[in-house]
Amino acid sequence: MNVLCARSLGAGCLLAGLLHAECALAAPAFSCAQVTPSTVMKPAYGRDAKSNVCEGFYEKAVSAPFIELVSLTVVSPDALKAISSPRIAIAAPPATHGSWHLLVQPLSVAMPYRVDGLLSPASALTWDFAKMSDATRATLKDVGFVATTAGGTASSTVVPVRISASGERASDTPKTAYATVRVTGTTAQVVWRSYATDPGERSGELSWNKVGNEPLYPEEWATVEIPLTGAKSGLTLEFKGTDVDSHEIHPLRIVIPGSGS
């Protein structure tokens, strides 16, 4: 799996064809993520024969507890629920540079299904959600979208993506991002905080805020709202927690670029 988590992740792959650019762009070469395709659930993860896409179910390895970022968008879960069309547009912030590795996956750990692709700030990508929906029975509000630096690791920069019905135009500058996390083991508590990456833009105490329910179980996920205004240098977002035996679990730290990045 290539969610952003507090450990090294597998290489990503590009998504074209099923997930294709609205304006034609030449797609670089790509390889699928380094995961084991499922031998039980279908479709098994792998290259799509008809397009440049790596998609499907995979074998998810069991590991020590850690916190995963499974979605970062500028669209609230309620707004995602309101999108009825299976064809959706996924867009990176226009002010960013370069390409972003896009991972789309169900939020539930019971559904080890993923779609990998490349996201460019130059144009939105149109994706047909029907294939994932048919395979997992997930609704759009139960799906996560994460765009990290292509080929990135646990310390990668992440951009919040915009999700909309295909053909819709963004009419405003987002002021809030929605970060969704889940844990790989039962945790007694998870907390988070965000702050300006540049110390000169910070003010006040860097306090921690509680995430979701206590305890937070592996089959659960929680979403926090992150203000995006007031930090030209960008934001640093941190999560940490303890397990039921009061042991610290591996923390998560990400960077969201700002307008001045």
Low-confidence stretches: 1-28
**Structural class, from helix and strand content?**
mainly beta
Mean pLDDT: 80
Separate helix tally: 2
* Percent of sequence in beta strands: 35-45%
Query: What is the number of beta strands?
Result: 19
Order of helices and strands: EEEEEEHEEEEHEEEEEEEEE
Q: How does the major sheet shape up?
A: 7 strands, antiparallel
Helix content: under 10%
| N- to C-terminal distance | 28 Å
Integer-rounded radius of gyration: 18 Å
Give the key terms.
globular, 2 helices, seven-stranded antiparallel beta sheet, four-stranded antiparallel beta sheet, mainly beta, 261 residues, disordered N terminus
Care to describe what's here?
It is a single chain. The protein starts with a strand and ends in a 5-residue tail after the last strand. The chain is built from 2 helices and 19 strands. It has a domain at 4-183. A hairpin with a 6-residue loop joins strand 4 and strand 5. Strands 3, 4, 5, 8, 9, 11 and 12 form a 7-stranded antiparallel beta sheet that branches. A 4-stranded antiparallel beta sheet has the order 1-6-14-17, with no helix packed on it. It has helices at residues 77-81, 130-136; strands at 4-5, 19-21, 36-37, 46-47, 54-59, 67-73, 87-91, 100-106, 113-119, 125-128, 143-149, 158-159, 162-165, 176-183, 187-196, 209-210, 221-227, 235-243, 248-256. With 261 residues, it is mainly beta. The chain is 5% helix and 39% strand.
